[in-house]
Amino acid sequence: MIQQDSNAGIHTLYGTPLSLYTGKARAYLIKQRIPYREITPTTAHFRDQVRPNAGGQSIPIIETAEGEVIRDSTAIIDHFETLSGGQALPKGPRQRFLARLFDVIGSEGLLRPAMHYRWNYPAENLNFLAFHFQSMIPRDRDRVELAEKTMLRMRNAGEAFGAVSSTFTLVESLYADFLNMLNSHLRDMPYLLGSTPTIADYGMMAPMYAHLGRDPKPLALMQAQAIHVFRWVERMNRPEPDIGEYAIADEEANLIRAQEEGADHVPDSLIQLLRHIARDLVPETVAAATLINRWLDEQQPKPLTPIERGVGFCRFEIDQDSINALAQPYRFFLLARVQADYEALDVADQASVMAMADKCHLAPLLSAKLTREIARANNQEVWL
Predict the structure, then answer these.
(1) Do 143 and 134 touch, CB atoms closer than 8 A?
(2) CA–CA separation, 276 vs 282, rounded Å?
(3) How far apart, in whole angstroms, are the C-alpha atoms of residue 332 and residue 109?
(4) pTM of the entire structure?
(5) Domain count, the chain
(6) Residue 153 falls inside a structural domain
(7) Does residue 124 sit within a domain?
């Protein structure tokens, strides 16, 4: 435990507007009305007292009002969900399954378009990105040179995720259809699963805000072609419901409508969206599981060894186009939550969820498992 530097009772979020995963944690704190302040990770306090306890270099990192340091957006949300009794997780089995699944989709499944639209449109984005990357570096260092090095590393990461010239047309076609379907879904409801934000919305905010809803090129695309998605992004960054265009008198009336539809309601618009997402998500996940399991068999990492961002490249096909992308164990850390929730259901609820998963072409995800489990220890994801 370390001593909070100021603002007793206020949690400190270390992140930036540019950070994909900070967007996920920030939206949760805003919508759950958790008092916080956000600081760029450049202060001496962060360097000397926070980062040594964070277990890694990535952001976001939160320093709670009690002095606890937590790194990773999922772990941050888990911390506060434990304190609140899981307020952001739906109770119905089908919606709970989808909430966990959208967390996987947002945190991992949309990295390719997020990186593509950030790094492969330099004419539109470069000045914007350079400003933000430089602002993440302390003023007493060479901000320009260090930012350029970081940007090059991140651009290379985008290529590792499969955003290369041979896939640009496919990536943009898939994203255009995704954006259109998500826009149609959000035309009739303010949040992904109904009248209030859930883990589904927070997970999806990771790519949809910092990259796809804020960088100049994809932001212009969203504003021009998907106004309901753009409004959802705005809504997720405001503490109030912000649902005026849905012609509902107040939030209570919206909740009543959701209850009348059923607490586990899944509209057809969401089924259509998930069918489209499955075209990309399922083949990559299955291919990544195969490669990572082969790597585990060969490498036999010792228990509590921190997982790596990627352990090799897997090849898979989407609509007869071949993609080669980094196989990332963290995807399966999140997917294991989907699978565990499903396995904990009774027989009737399992049948209901499986019928929906089949309808969405997502059933293979329930059996795409690694041969070793992943847990968290000392602020890191580790092999068990």
Answers:
(1) yes
(2) 10
(3) 11
(4) 0.93
(5) 3
(6) yes
(7) yes
